[in-house]
Write a structure and sequence with these properties.
Layout lengths: L1 E5 L4 H16 L3 E6 L4 H7 L3 E3 L4 H8 L9 H4 L1 H23 L4 E5 L3 H11 L3 E5 L21 H19 L1 H10 L9 H4 L6 E3 L16 E3 L15 H8 L5 E3 L9 H14 L4 E4 L12 E4 L4 H4 L5 E4 L3 H10 L3 E3 L6 H10 L14 H11 L2 H15 L4 H9 L9
Parallel strand pairs: 1-2, 1-4, 2-3, 4-5, 5-6, 6-7, 8-9, 8-11, 9-10, 11-12
Helix pairs in contact: 5-6, 5-8, 6-8, 11-15
Pfam families: EryCIII-like_C, Glyco_transf_28
Protein name: Glycosyltransferase
InterPro entries: EryCIII-like_C, Glycosyltransferase_28, GlycoTrans_28_N, UDP_glucos_trans
């Protein structure tokens, strides 16, 4: 079957879906990756066809931050910039997606492109399924992760999901959907919130049910599959300088904020190094999009390095609780210190805390050297490492690819475009 995996977002969004695509390819499907040009190298590493869409992840992240620390309130202040982004980019992206979809039998859609992706699939008469790395379907059990996934009561929880769906369907993709509707003979309201949220439309959530339990009020189409792991080519190894640092002393602590382009990178790097020294720990500082850096015999600054190879060597991981970094820390079986910045990060930070594999989260806007040092001393207690080790073994035993592969195998021949 010709499968197009359409994705946008940052590294933590794209890498797990590339891994999923590679494993679906190994099961006999013809997989094409459709993603921003920033990630072409990931397609090359996985030896999968790669089609570029004009989506700039740096530009998209700057909608929300513009070089300053983020907070939950940034979601509201970013709305006008999202509307401007829509006017500049959405139609061009849609045309790129449409060209690839015309050669596919089924579309697998990352949540950022899901509204327009479903519209494209419906216009072509082919099936589509959603891929989420966090809870992505309405529930009365908790609010959307973008506002922290706290329970505000059934009605308020559902209202938060409706607002989120309106944002994606209308503010981001409304112009493109109207354009597609005008050129299509399909008469129903494809791409609408109601269409996206149909309980029978397959929607896969690529995280462990041990970490994020499936809400009881989800329909049968909503599955929590287990994690989709990034693809790391065989023979990949850690850089020599990093390997020498690891061999020179006890396991260090990783500090990184992934694709968060935070302001005051020099100050943040100095804060991290100071906290590590207060706690008596060595550190591995990853530059990331924040551009972190610090110097000393007890710390090393590194560029992007596969977390799957690095984290098993760490004593703990200090991170922003993005979905991808959270998954890597869990799989490695090391405890975390979570410093959520925005979006779904507050959700994952609280889940790690409740599972007993992380210290209480420190919101980025409240981060201090003393608070980080205290959290590091907390997670150095043997109980945190023991719980993380047990949970990692359970997570590694899951096969997150299997439910997606099964759904593709069971697609009716009548539902595939002839």
């Amino acid at each position: 079957m010709r499968v197009a995996i359409m994705m946008a977002g940052t590294t933590g969004d794209v890498m797990p879906l590339v891994g999923l695509g590679k494993r679906l390819s190994e099961r006999g499907h013809h997989v094409t990756l459709v993603a921003p040009p920033h990630f072409t190298h990931l397609g090359n590493q996985a030896s999968l066809p790669f089609q570029v869409i004009p989506f700039d992840p740096h530009d998209y992240m700057n909608i929300w931050c513009r070089g300053r620390p983020l907070s939950a309130t940034g979601l509201l202040t970013g709305m006008p910039r999202v509307a401007a982004w829509n006017r500049r980019h959405s139609l061009q992206i849609t045309k790129s997606l449409l060209a690839v979809a015309d050669q596919a039998d089924v579309l697998l859609l990352h949540y950022l492109v899901a509204p327009i992706g479903h519209a494209i699939a419906d216009s072509l008469g082919i099936p589509s399924m959603e891929l989420h790395l966090q809870p992505g379907h309405r529930t009365g059990e908790f609010s959307t992760p973008w506002v922290g996934a706290r329970s505000m009561g059934n009605m308020a929880n559902r209202l938060s999901w409706r607002i989120q769906d309106t944002y994606y369907s209308n503010l981001m993709w409304g112009r493109a959907t109207r354009w597609l509707h005008a050129r299509s003979s399909v008469e129903h309201g494809f791409g609408s919130q109601e269409c996206r949220q149909r309980s029978d439309r397959p929607c896969f959530h690529g995280y462990s049910p041990l970490v994020g339990p499936r809400p009881a009020d989800w329909g049968p189409g909503q599955q929590v599959t287990g994690y989709w792991w990034p693809y790391v080519p065989s023979g990949t190894d850690l850089p020599d300088a990093l390997r020498r640092f690891l061999d020179a002393g006890p396991p260090p602590v990783f500090v990184g904020f992934g694709s968060m382009p935070l302001a005051d990178s020099a100050k943040l790097g100095s804060l991290a190094a100071g906290a590590l020294r207060r706690a008596g720990l060595r550190g591995v500082i990853q530059r990331g999009w924040a551009g972190l850096s610090c110097h000393g015999n007890d710390v090393i600054t590194i560029a992007d390095t596969p977390h799957e190879l690095l984290f098993p060597h760490m004593a703990a991981v200090v991170h922003h609780a993005g979905a991808g970094t959270t998954a890597a820390a869990l799989r490695a079986g090391v405890p975390s210190v979570s410093i959520p910045v925005a979006f779904d990060q507050y959700f994952w930070a609280r889940r790690l805390d409740r599972l007993g594999v992380a210290a209480r989260p420190i919101p980025a806007r409240r981060l201090t050297e003393n608070a980080l040092a205290s959290a590091l001393r907390t997670v150095m207690a043997p109980a945190y490492s023991a719980r993380a080790t047990v949970l990692a073994a359970q997570i590694r035993a899951e096969d997150g690819t299997a439910p997606v592969a099964t759904a593709l195998d069971h697609l009716s021949v009548r539902s595939i475009r002839r």
